[in-house]
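My current task is to audit a protein record that another person submitted. I have pasted the whole thing underneath without changing anything:
***
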Amino acid sequence: MKREAARQDKGAVRAKRGLLARLSGRRAEVAAALLLMAKGYRILGFRLASHLGEIDLLALKRGVLVVVEVKQRATIETAMEAVSHVQRERLRRAGAKIAASRPALKHASIRLDLIALAPGRWPRHIPDAWGGG
């Protein structure tokens, strides 16, 4: 019985930690959207899911469709390093698929940006964070 109770306690702790992480991530995405809007971007969507993966933010500015990855970590540097090459390629493909499916976006160029957040620091927006390819 003690083992079962301990297992349930660990499960509850894990569930609470997951909930807190999701809430923190959503707050980071809202902060990122506000930053982009202040810079003149139009937000087209939040947390867009597809079979290719989830796009945190989709924005548009001057004919550029911007797929935005939002990362919150202990430091800005670790946030910048947190997106793998495989993830970047998935995000690019997801952005291209969305652009192709929306007539108003068919001719938009696509860019992958990063917004990195860390405690006690201003969010950092890095346009074309990984050099377009």
